[in-house]
Structure formats: C-alpha cells, structure tokens
Design goal:
Layout (H helix, E strand, L loop, with lengths): L8 H18 L3 H7 L4 H9 L17 H15 L1 H20 L2 H12 L5 E4 L15 E5 L2 E12 L6 E7 L9 E7 L5 E6 L10 E12 L11 H37 L1 E2 L2 E2 L4 H29 L6 H26 L1 H4 L5 H11 L6 H15 L18 H9 L1
Parallel strand pairs: 1-4
Antiparallel strand pairs: 2-3, 3-7, 4-5, 6-7, 8-9
Helix pairs in contact: 1-3, 1-4, 4-5, 4-7, 4-8, 5-6, 5-7, 7-8, 7-9, 7-11, 8-9, 9-11, 9-12
The structure holds acetoacetyl-coenzyme A (CAA).
Acetoacetyl-coenzyme A (CAA) binds next to helix 5, strand 3, helix 7 and helix 12.
Length: 411
C-alpha cells in the first residue's frame, strides 16, 4: 500500500462539500430519521445537487472520476454526522461497481450517467438466506428464454432496497459449473415480478432501508447481463467488494471520529469530584486509545483507497485490512464513548447511543470481519513466497509429520 498519499484538489473540494451537507442536512436530522426509520431524501437530494454521486463514476459517463480515495473522504464526512446516512450514500457506489468494473460500454452509457446525476439510486443484491459469507452458494436463478433472462428466488439484506431504482442482482446462470456458476444482471424497479417483501426493523442504520427483494419470474433482456458474458458474476462480486470495502471502512472511520468528538466535548464539560472528567487519568486513557485507533484506521482507509486509485495489482488484502480494522475500531470507540457519557450514553435522548447501535453492522456487512481476517491470512500466506530468503533462518529439520503422511495416503 502507498505511504505517500496525495489528496487531489478535487478530492479536497468534494470532502468540504460533503462536510457542509453533513452539517446542514445530516447531523441535525439524524435522530428524526433514525426514530422514524425513514430515508433522508432531503440529504440525498442535497448530495445529488452538489454532484457527490459523481465522485465514484468515471468521467466518460458523467462522473467526476475522482476515485476511491475521494469516495472515502466524502463517505467519512457524511458518516461522521450519521453512520446510517454514510451507508445510504456509499451503497450507491457498491451497487454501481459491478457495472463500472464489468459492464459493457453500452451498459455504462445506459446506467452510469443517471447514477452520477443522482437521478437513480442503486442497490447490490448478493446475499441470500442461505448464502451470506459463502457468497458462491447462491440459489436465485436466471434462466435464458429467447432474448431474455427469467429470474426466480429471493435476496436477503438488500441495503437501499425500495429506495433504489437499479439493482445489481447476482444469479445462478449455470448450476452445473463450479467456477462460472454466477452472473450479475441489472433489474430495474418496476419490472413485473420484482418486489420488496420485507422491510427489516433494525438495531442501527435505521435511516436506510434493508429489505428482502423477491423475484417472481422477473423477465429482463439479455442486454442487462453485466459484461454480456455469463459466468463472470462471482469475479465481478469480488472485484466490487475489493473496491467497496474501503468505503465501508471510511464509514466506520467517520463513525469513530464522530463518537470521539462527542466524547471529547462531553468529557470537558462534565464535572465530577470538582473537576472535568477529562482531567482523570482513566478517562484520558480511554480518549487517547480511541484517538490512536481512529487515526490508525484513517491511514489504513486512505492507503487502501489510494492503492486502488494507483492501479496496484493486489488490492484485496489492503481493502480487507481497512474494513476489518476500521469497523472493529468504530465498535470499540463507540462503546467507550457511551461509557464516557455514563447514564446519558445509554439514553436515546442524545446521539451517542445511535453511534453505538450503528457501529455493530459495520463488523457484519460487506463481509464479516471473520471473512476479512480469512482473506488477509490467505493473501499473507501467498505473499510469503517472497520471503523465501528467510528460509535459512528457520529450523531446517524434516517438517513432514505423521499427520501429513496420513493426509497424503488418503488423498
Ligand atoms: N478478485 C477477483 N477474483 C477473485 C477475488 C478477488 N478479490 N477473490 C476470489 N476471486 C476469484 C478466485 O480467483 C476464483 O476464481 P477461479 O474460479 O477462476 O479460480 C474464484 O473467485 C473463487 O475464489 P475462492 O475460491 O477464493 O472463493 P471462496 O468460495 O473461497 O470465497 C470469499 C471467497 C472471500 C469467502 C467470498 O465468498 C466472500 O468475500 N464472502 C463474503 C461475502 C460478502 O462480503 N458479502 C457481502 C454482501 S454485500 C453487503 O453486505 C452490502 C450491504 O448490505 C451494504
């Protein structure tokens, strides 16, 4: 990952715009939309009018082509004010990445300009009831019929479902294939047979809907098959997640910073034993740890995003590290922030409880943190080939054990 990260002028401008919108339309309304469990259309409109949906769309298709680092900076600002709104924004990038990384020229021209303008919102439909971490184990099918695909089944945990106009839906197109089973297909809201069936009642990120999407013989033209070639879906899903995970990490970074800022202001104001609680060493330790972890997340987020923008070859490990570390940090920082607020932190009268509730999902969606650690370890083990020059410094005794022999004789 690069260690000489440069922020472009454009990225800084987008960050400043996001901060203004967050201060005006997101933070003051966060509790209202959280309680009502309603989408903040007002803020989404402001984001669209300010051109922030253009951040992640390439220039040729109506976007700013500002890159993943700019996307992270914008998401961080929005999430600092309301983590739920952070994902309400960033999920549009997640849903668009299959088209950006895998779509044909015609598909990019058809959908991306509308997304960039904020005229159409997007959702990413990968998970199912029985396919969460095992993203390859999908059951939703898309069967060819003349010039169309006919889609049947149910998707679970579709963030932005109902609000979104465009759905990137991952379907089984070849059940007999092992590596080319899955394809991504675009389904537009309003297509007969497509419906939103269950709007989840959530612990956090309540201002953005998470739903089940159902497909009852949904007929879409073959032109909607992303990339125009069946069997590329799993690869497109993984490439999408590599690019979207720094965005979730940025959401977590914003959430951690937002909770830390509130805890700092409160710990200076709150007096006990005749002094502000920020003067007590045990509180200072908490504040210092919260700040260190948040800052460490910041640089993992920025470096993993900059690596993608720089076109580095292996971006998977960095994206997983940023996602895992920043989201674990957001949960830890929000927990300590509630502790610093004491009884007030446990009450819904103040936003700090919401930071705590919003943080939990970060460790779960876009790949659980158990999956991130698995991905990181798999990559480390692969990369260890480059460390063969260290072989002479490790014990050279025979490493094959009776267990290995048993395994190879059974193979
Ligand atoms: N980029 C490109 N290709 C990749 C890849 C990557 N990062 N990772 C894997 N692949 C390719 C492999 O090369 C392999 O290709 P071949 O068949 O051609 O050899 C193929 O994909 C299969 O790879 P694996 O054997 O590694 O696959 P696996 O079954 O072991 O699964 C996994 C890998 C990492 C566990 C994956 O299933 C995964 O990421 N699971 C988590 C799913 C997830 O993140 N879901 C989130 C849903 S979205 C969401 O939550 C959004 C929201 O609501 C906001």
């Amino acid at each position: 990952m690069p260690h000489d990260i440069v922020f472009s002028e454009q990225a800084r401008e987008l960050q400043a715009t996001a901060r203004e919108i967050a201060d005006k339309y997101v933070r003051p309304l966060a509790q209202k939309y959280d309680k009502a469990q309603e989408y903040n259309y007002e803020a989404a409109r402001a984001v669209a009018e300010a051109g922030l949906f253009k951040t992640f769309v390439p220039k040729e298709y109506g976007g700013h082509g500002a890159g993943i680092l700019a996307l992270a900076l914008v998401t961080e600002e929005l999430a600092k004010a309301d983590s739920g709104f952070g994902v309400a924004f960033a999920v549009n990038a997640l849903g668009s990445f299959p088209i950006i990384v895998g779509g044909t020229e015609e598909q990019k021209k058809q959908w991306l300009p509308q997304i960039a303008a904020g005229d159409k919102f997007v959702a990413f439909c990968l998970s199912e009831k029985n396919a969460g971490s095992d993203a390859g184990g999908l059951a939703v099918t898309a069967v060819e019929d003349g010039d169309d695909y006919v889609i049947c089944g149910e998707k679970k945990w579709t963030t932005n479902g109902g609000v979104a106009d465009i759905y990137s839906v991952f379907c089984v197109t070849d059940p007999t294939s092992k590596s080319r089973r899955i394809s991504a297909i675009i389904v537009e809201k309003g297509t007969p047979g497509f419906s939103v069936k269950k709007i989840e009642d959530k612990m956090g990120i309540r201002c953005v809907p998470v739903v089940e999407t159902h497909y009852d013989n949904v007929r879409v033209p073959k032109a909607n098959l992303i990339g125009g070639r069946a069997g590329m879906g799993f690869k497109h899903a993984m490439m999408t997640l590599d690019r979207a995970r720094p965005g979730v990490a940025a959401q977590a970074l914003g959430a951690a910073q937002g909770a830390l800022d509130l805890a700092l202001v409160y710990s200076n104001r709150r007096r006990q034993f005749g002094a502000p609680i920020s003067s007590f060493q045990m509180v200072q330790k908490m504040l210092a740890d919260m700040a260190m972890r948040t800052e460490a997340s910041r640089w993992l987020v920025y470096a993993s995003a900059a690596a993608i923008d720089a076109g580095l070859k292996n971006i998977t490990k960095g994206a997983a590290m940023a996602k895992c570390y920043a989201t674990d940090t957001a949960m830890a920082v929000a927990t300590d922030a509630v502790q610093i607020f004491g009884g007030y932190g446990f009450m819904e009268d103040y936003p700090i409880a919401k930071y705590f509730r919003d943080a939990k999902i970060l460790q779960i969606y876009e790949g659980t943190n158990q999956i991130q650690r698995m991905v990181i370890a798999r990559n480390l083990i692969k990369e260890a080939e480059q460390l063969s020059f260290l072989e002479e410094y490790i014990p050279q005794e025979e490493q094959v054990t009776y267990r290995d022999e048993a395994v190879s004789s059974n193979a």
